[in-house]
Design goal:
This protein is of the alpha/beta class. The chain has helices spanning 2-5, 10-19, 24-39, 48-74, 91-102, 114-122, 137-140, 156-165, 208-216, 232-239, and strands at 83-87, 107-111, 127-129, 146-151, 175-177, 199-200, 220-225, 244-249, 255-257, 271-276. The strands form two sheets. A six-stranded parallel beta sheet has the order 3-2-1-4-5-6. A four-stranded antiparallel beta sheet has the order 7-10-8-9, with helices on one face. It is elongated and about 90 Å long.
């Protein structure tokens, strides 16, 4: 009854009805029934409990195998979500999110800075004044169309914890955070193992402080359409080493993130989102 009264579309109610847990009550009382039936002398009651659990296990397997097909049939599943959830709504991350929006990608932001959240909302970016580590965050922030996380706070520990918090929501290789670099020596800290952190974004020397410095020194976030006449080589020649590629959008709309662990070669027809110095 709660599903019927819920504020959901009809197809979503059908999907929940198909996937709703079954057998919980049966599992709880099967042993009681078996005990009572044995007491009145009915034969073969010892099979009641194992058969009940066999049926429950079979339905779990059935739902697991058919959930994707049913979701596609009812058109309630997210097919290849390409959007980005940003942790941190400071000025330059808002600029990145806005540029992704302009290119047709879904974005959302989470921050504990009320002022930054208000500025994001005013710019038309869905933003939420919440802690990323809140237990209720998955209910508060709608993730429809979003398939990756970028942790951009100045706190390395919060970034890593955000990655771990969303580990069951997004695929492991779609969890990103800013690199950790000590301010006094400019060298990498002893890095935690990969399963305790996200993939490092953009470039090894591009930590929070460096991004802040570049952005407030006049750098901007730009979308550059690559062509045969102005390909990636020409882009690098034109901007020298001042431009930093951040994201790549393929012709079919799929998004790729520049990270420190892979080298990408954008092609004509791709859209490059980069941090470009004002000069």
């Amino acid at each position: 009854f709660s599903t019927i009264r819920a504020d959901l579309k009809f197809r979503e109610k059908l999907f929940i009805s198909w996937m709703a847990p079954r057998g919980i009550v049966a599992a709880a009382i099967a042993s009681i029934f078996a005990f009572r039936l044995t007491g009145i002398g009915l034969p073969d009651t010892e099979f009641l409990v194992p058969v009940t659990f066999l049926v429950i296990a079979s339905t779990v397997v059935l739902y697991g195998l058919t959930s994707g097909s049913v979701a596609r049939l009812l058109k309630v599943g997210q097919l290849n979500p390409q959007g980005v959830l940003f942790i941190g709504a400071q000025a330059w991350s808002r600029a990145i999110a806005k540029e992704l929006q302009r290119n047709g990608l879904k974005v959302a932001m989470i921050d504990t800075n009320r002022s930054d959240v208000k500025k994001a909302c005013k710019a038309g970016i869905p933003a939420y004044f919440e802690s990323v580590l809140s237990e209720d965050i998955f209910e508060i922030v709608p993730l429809d169309g979003i398939g990756r996380l970028a942790a951009l706070t100045p706190n390395d520990e919060v970034n890593s914890l955000a990655v771990l918090h969303f580990d069951e929501i997004f695929e492991r290789n779609e969890l990103y955070q800013l690199p950790s670099i000590t301010e006094n020596k400019g060298t990498e800290k002893e890095l935690p193992p990969l399963h305790l952190r996200g993939r490092f974004l953009f470039r090894k020397d591009l930590n929070f402080s460096e991004l802040n410095h570049k952005y407030f020194s006049g750098a901007t976030i730009k979308s550059i359409q690559l062509t045969k006449e102005f390909d990636f080589v020409k882009f690098k020649d034109n901007y020298d080493e001042t431009a930093i590629p951040l994201f790549l959008i393929y012709e079919d709309g799929d998004l790729e993130v520049f990270t420190t662990d892979i080298v990408m070669e954008p092609k004509p027809g791709h859209t490059l989102i980069a941090l470009v110095d004002s000069e």
